Amino acid sequence: MKVALIQTRTPATHQAALAHVLPMVREAAAAGASFIATPEGTNVLQKDRATLLPMLRSLEDDIVIAGLRAAAKDLGVWILIGSALVVREDGKAANRSALISPDGAITATYDKLHMFDVDLPGGETARESATYEPGDRAVTAQAGDLKLGLTICYDLRFPALYRALAVAGAEVVTIPAAFTRPTGAAHWEVLMRARAIETGSFVLAPAQGGRHEDGRGTWGHSLVVAPWGEVIAHLDHDEPGVLLAELDLKAAAKARAAIPALANARAFSGPHSLA
After folding, report:
1. How far apart are CA 212 and CA 210, in angstroms?
2. What pLDDT, on the 0 to 100 scale, is given for residue 14?
């Protein structure tokens, strides 16, 4: 099965974001991809909370989501919006993945579980919890022959989530991201490979890349990792672009049979706290 990852440098307005991502989606479909995934923050990126929040719309009213739903139907492909920054039903903001079927319907959504609240050594800070309400459930979904587990960016650092998705049947985990440059340089590839190896799953990681209008810098380097841990497709830069890969959907079962870590796991008690 041919898949495509879209690496973007999402602009600070919805109109510009749609104009940015749509040509790459069409390029991916023309190259034969039947499943196309975009990064975190596909619909808008703006780190100033006071500017961002009034711009957000519901999943149904967001013009980027509407445009990608129309594109999925027009092109006859599955599109995973890696995440869109939207208003939830209760009025709070969410960082939400949305899976779109070839008929343009939204068939699954996932709200980012883990909020990136950090002070980095270089002086950069992030407080996602000040803007977004975290999700409270893990999500699997079917996209044609792909058995998906949906995650977003900072979720990558919580391996128990990926084990739970694999145990529930996911053979492909999606990790759309807007990784910072310092953490990307240090940890991006090794953590992606670790999640693939631990679970015997494909990892699809479409990324934001470069210097954005709001001043942030993101790592790029979108990649696809096979269940045995090898990187089978990689963009070695942070520029916008399309990454194509062929997935052998039997590879997950083969890897899990060779190293049956999911089946061999045992419940245990402890340890006691050292505090």
Report:
1. 6
2. 97
Closest CA to 7 of 174, 243, 245, 244: 243
**127 three-state secondary structure:** strand
Provide the whole-model pTM.
0.96
Number of other residues whose CB lies within 10 A of the CB of residue 187: 15
Does the pLDDT at position 92 exceed 80? yes
- Kindly name the residue from 60, 89, 112, 254 that is annotated as catalytic: 112
Mean pLDDT of 91-117: 97
Which two structure tokens, joined as six digits, stand for 208?
Answer: 């934001």
Burial of 144 (0-12, 13-18, 19+ CB in 10 A): middle
Residues 253-256: contacts with CB under 8 Å, at least 24 apart: 253/171, 254/227, 255/200, 255/226, 255/227, 255/228, 256/200, 256/227
Is 40 an active-site residue? yes
pLDDT in tens, 225-238: 999 999 999 999 99
Catalytic residue from among 40, 60, 189, 213 = 40
Report which of 155, 159, 158, 194 is spatially closest to residue 178, judged by C-alpha positions: 155
Q: Is 46 exposed, middle or buried (0-12, 13-18, 19+ CB in 10 A)?
A: buried
Hey, how many other C-beta atoms are within 10 angstroms of the C-beta on 167?
13
Q: Is 24 in contact with 9 (CB distance < 8 Å)?
A: no
Decide if 250 is catalytic: no
pLDDT of residue 125: 77
| pLDDT at site 6 | 99
Which residue type occupies 130? A
Residue 39: phi and psi, rounded to 5, are: -85, 180
